[in-house]
Amino acid sequence: MAKGFSVIRMPGFGFVAIACFLVLYLPIATLVVYAFNAGTSIAIWQGFSLRWFVSAWNNERVIETALRSLNIAVVAATLATVVATMAALATTRTAPYRGLTFKYAFINQPLMVPEIVTAVALLIFFSRIKVWTGYSGLGYLIAAHTAFCIPFAYMPIRARLESMDLTLERAAADLYAAPWAVFRRVTFPLLWPGILSGFMLAFVISLDDVVITEFVKSGGQDTLPTYMLGQIKRQVTPEINAISTVFLVISVIIVTGFFLVNRKRP
Amino acid sequence: MPRAAEFATAAARRDIRDRWLLSAPALLIIFFAAIGPLFIVLLYSFMVKGDYGDVKFWQFTSDAWISVLFERDLFDDTVSFADAHLSVLWRSVKLSAATTLLCLVFGFPTAYFIATRPERQRDVWILLVTIPFWTNLLIRTFAVQELIRNEGIVNSFLQWIGLIDQPIQMMFTEFAVMVGMVYVFLPLMVLPIYASMEKLDFRLVEAGYDLYAGRLQVLRRVILPLVRPGIVAGSILVFIPALGAYVTPRLLGGGKSLMLGTLIELQFGQGRNWPLGAALSITLMAIVMAALLFYVRTVSRGGNRNG
For chain A, how big is the Rg over CA atoms in Å? Predict the structure, then answer.
């Protein structure tokens, strides 16, 4: 026992961990493999083919809903990132002031409430406004997405700000830089990785949303995930696998990008 | 120097005012598109239901709240417990608790495994946990569905090795919902446990062994108490979304294994009973708030004991 006794080893833990990783990736891997199936089944392998990617590409509904998803995600993530940056500047690097804790709680609130409850609440609220104003455009979806993206954009920006001290900004101000110039020339370049991370998180969160979109959308406002939800309930062909695969690739790229931006440099 | 002091307070006041202005857009958006509407839900839960969905405005009643727990007999007006709602409520709590427990059983060793890798490898392992986490929940649920369908890989494999003759019906059962939720929420357990494990000083573990503790004792007396905040945080992060889960029970559970999330949706769809849906939403939120309160109290108590 004395020889080769490792204090950090726990018997069986490594096995469970490897099993976990396999289980995490097995379903996704299967899904991707069957996207390349030549047959119409999602269970029986009938040879390699790209036909389902072609079919998804030629499916007008897919393209239309994908573009709508992108449109909402870009606008909502941008808005969320801008207001989250402002909020982060207002809530960090300061002595505690009255209302600070309130702001934290407020900004993180969308994380605390179950999505289905927010979805129901927005359904009720927006359906009233639709009746009153007659407007039924994408604005509702964008507002809803912006709101739940804010905490995700806020977290990395705040974390980044807290690791920056005020010395450089004070120096710039001492050299008669106006507040806006200080922000543009000093704060922003230093804060940039946090802002980028925040934007990426918000973007992915908006792109992935099913529940809130499903309740808030008006007729003809399906996004790619709600369209897929409808398709999965009916009958599934590998086309859904092909769309999922493309979706997965985009998510992996964004997450890896986020990871590289935030990597601790030695 | 009164004048300098006045100047300083004025500057401080201006600073705080600027900080409110800066945070105002974020707070306003969240108020109008997230928090505010929750109060409307509360209001709706006390209104009379409309004939074709929606509500009859300003006609108040507590019918919806009563029907969360009780049902009125159509013929003799007697009131009894609403079995249908109670069983859904019970199933939600039961499945969420089971999911949390299973995630803990699988997630804890995984987090431990990652935390004990050489420092340079850890980032990659964490990335491997993070990727499924940021992958579309719908796609992951769909992936599970493909595996456990009657014609799915799992059944095909079991039939191929001759263990079973007929496919096992897994879809549209509580088991399917639980498997799906464990799969979907596992990263939410691993990440916080890892975060507190990363800070664990392994010299304490070594000291435990030096004092003749066995592995189980070290695990129970040294490691578990030190990573307790991570375990509590992970459990809350899994339990809360599991309780309100909508996509997973809808796809894997079907009509037989309704959970709170799908039951609420039904009231706004086929059920056309918005007040009941609103009351159920508030009930769900109350349970979540209770869980969060429990979390805050547990963490603060743990902090006092360690500090």
Answer: 23
